[in-house]
Specification:
heterodimer; A: Rossmann fold; OB fold (Dihydrolipoamide Acetyltransferase, E2P); 8 helices; 35% strand; B: mainly alpha; MetI-like fold; two-stranded antiparallel ribbon; 12 helices; 2 strands
Chain lengths: 355, 288
């Protein structure tokens, strides 16, 4: 059940925003839509909300066909990247607004608003106005409005993107907990792979108007079905290179090769694309079962406890991410270790190869 | 730490501005102050009169009448133009090729000089030769703005509405355009009515530009001179003699420089006071 898109597509003028999509989001689950800007996250959400009718296909919600049912007739809550609150309503009235539209009696309304305010730590701010709140408080007010409604479908469109780092961490922690147990199907759009991982639940990766994969977040991260999904779901970007399979070895170059892992024995000889995430390329100390290559440093960045080093390996520009602060200089020759057992292999059609 | 150093060279850059402001604001203003407290019979001979002219102006029936006339006119202008401007702005398209067409059409009246507007409407509304005047009379309504006070008032107000509502429209439209789409979506999801969207989203979001629009329209209409002067010359009788027309009559018609100077200062203070009160009120309501 939950929300189901059946062969849904969306065209605006000559442009296709969403290609034919089949997607079924589990009821009561926390679902992440992951994709870069313009990948169609917002359009997909607007379709789910009923803010826009799909060009083709059907939208089902809890076993009911809701295609073309306008948003007012359905119970949907939505939170945006911008902090959207009624500017001349106090926080209390803002949270109460969906209940007032639904004509909830005053006593119950007060109770529900206060309970939600408590949950979101807004109780001291109830009498204030949105422009007197910090960004985090404004967004929590908007979230409270979405929560208080008890809508079975909650859409969160990059709700943390406009918050500063600290607040983002805090709210990101709270969000899945807030919706847990409400029974609401939550859809959360984000452009940050790390955010998707932290939110857990299920993830759908989007690329240029197509859903490339949907499933449990951790599983998608570990085994992306295509190179595209792997690229969408990797930050820093996943490294790729052409490898040649000859017999029982994969060759990056003539000199650099490793044994084909078990299960790939049936694979024919030839050229494949390998993908490896930055933190499986290590500089300095060698991890177990790693293959050593020589590399030249192109750019070295230090992000706190991690060193992100862009290197050139046999003509491939790769990014490596390793623990600790390593002061590399541009142009340095370094030894890079590839944890080959973490490599993903893709066929010429971009599909993940499994043994 | 950045140390602040006294830089005397800065005066070099400020002096021209000070000189300019002194030349075009302070000196003329002080001349008026000078006239307002003295009597002169020409030849640059002055006699000290103290607050005599101020008392005379404030006690004169004539000033009271033109002041009330002015208030009534400005009140009507604001009551008509602000809601009308908002209404027009709301009906304008938000995107598409018609946006620029509408904007240009709206801006057109604003580009016409005051005296031309006055002359246009004078000819347009003439009961015997003007298109509008002939039409109204043709409908069987006796209309002659050069003789009937009510007709003169109506014509003046309609002319000003025609000339200046666009300003409110453009400002309100700018305010509306700055509201992110997400607000409308959120309201739609909440199931808010069109009235609720206007009352709780559009109006509060337009507050700042509307404050500016009201202030501008207040000041402009309160100091209006050219258009009614060209249209009616303050007549019939003195029924459309607004403050500035009256002021010019006293200063240049009767050459009563003392009372005229006192009156201009009072006039100036009234504008200043109203603007200050209005601005303070708006800012206070902003803070709630």
């Amino acid at each position: 059940m939950g929300i189901e898109l059946r062969k849904v597509s969306k065209q605006v003028g000559a442009e296709t925003y969403i290609y034919e999509t089949n997607l079924s989001l589990e009821k009561g689950g926390f679902n992440v839509l992951l994709g870069t800007a313009l990948s169609g996250k917002t359009t997909l959400m607007r379709l789910m909300a009923g803010l826009e009718p799909p060009t083709t296909g059907e939208l089902w919600f809890d076993g009911e066909n809701v295609t073309g049912v306008p948003v007012q007739k359905r119970s949907v809550a939505m939170v945006y990247q911008q902090f959207i609150n009624y500017p001349n309503f106090s926080v209390f009235d803002n949270i109460a607004s969906p209940l007032r539209v639904a004509r909830i009696p005053a006593g119950e309304l007060r109770q529900r608003v206060e309970r939600i305010a408590e949950l979101l730590r807004l109780t001291p701010m109830l009498q204030r106005f949105p422009n007197e709140l910090s960004g985090g408080q404004q967004q929590r007010t908007a979230l409270a409005r979405a929560l208080v409604k008890n809508a079975p479908l909650v859409l969160l469109d990059e709700p943390l993107a406009n918050l500063d780092y600290k607040l983002r961490e805090e709210l990101r922690d709270e969000l899945p907990k807030l919706f847990k147990g409400t029974g609401a199907t939550v859809v959360y759009a984000t452009s940050e792979p790390l955010e998707a991982l932290m939110l857990a639940g299920n993830t759908a990766t989007l690329h240029e108007g197509r859903v490339t994969q949907y499933g449990p977040t951790a599983k998608i991260y570990r085994t992306p079905n295509t190179l595209l999904s792997a690229q969408v779901f990797s930050d820093p970007p996943i490294n790729t290179a052409n490898v040649n399979k000859k017999g029982d070895t994969f060759h990056l170059t003539d000199a650099v090769s490793w044994r084909v892992p078990n299960g790939f024995a049936g694979l024919g000889d030839g050229s494949y694309t390998m993908g490896i995430r930055p933190h499986h390329l290590t500089l300095g100390t060698a991890p177990k079962n790693a293959v050593k290559v020589c590399a030249t440093v192109l750019v070295a960045e230090i992000s706190g406890s991690e060193s992100v080093v862009h290197v050139n390996v046999e003509g491939n520009n790769w990014v490596s991410e390793s623990h600790g602060v390593h002061p590399y200089k541009v142009g340095d020759s370094v030894e890079l270790f590839i944890s080959v057992e973490r490599c993903l292999y893709f066929g010429s059609d971009g599909q993940l190869l499994t043994g | 730490m950045i140390e602040k150093t006294a830089n005397k060279k800065a005066w070099l850059f400020v002096t021209p501005v000070v000189a300019l402001v002194a030349f075009n604001a302070l000196i003329p203003l002080m001349t008026v102050v000078n006239y307002s407290v003295q009597e002169t019979f020409g030849d640059n001979v002055f006699f000290w009169e103290g607050v005599k002219w101020f008392e005379q102006v404030l006690n004169s029936e004539r000033f009271h009448e033109s002041f009330l006339r002015q208030m009534a006119f400005t009140g009507m202008i604001l009551v008509i133009q602000v809601p009308l401007g908002i209404a027009v702005a709301l009906t304008m398209p938000r995107k598409g090729p018609w946006v620029s067409v509408c904007l240009v059409l709206m801006a057109l009246p604003l580009l016409i000089p005051w005296n031309v507007v006055g002359a246009m409407w004078n000819i347009f509304a003439l009961p015997d030769a003007g298109l509008l005047g002939r039409m109204i009379n043709g409908l069987g309504i006796d209309y002659n703005f050069t003789q009937q006070p009510v007709a003169a008032w109506l014509t003046t107000v309609v002319m000003d509405v025609w000339h200046w509502t666009s300003l409110v429209v453009l400002l309100a439209y700018a305010g509306l355009r700055s509201i992110p789409d997400a607000y409308y979506q959120a309201a739609k999801i909440d199931g808010a009515s069109a009235w609720a969207v206007f009352r709780h989203i559009q109006l509060p979001k337009m507050k700042h530009v509307l404050t500016i629009a009201i202030l501008l329209r207040f000041m402009d209409s309160f100091m209006i001179y050219t258009e009614p002067f060209v249209l009616t010359g303050g007549g019939p009788g003195n029924t459309t003699t607004f403050l500035s027309i009256d002021l010019v009559k006293i200063a240049l018609g009767q050459f009563d420089l003392g009372p005229a100077a006192a009156m201009s200062l009072i006039y100036f203070l009234v504008v200043l006071l109203v603007c200050w009160v209005f601005y303070t009120l708006m800012m206070r309501s902003e803070k709630q």
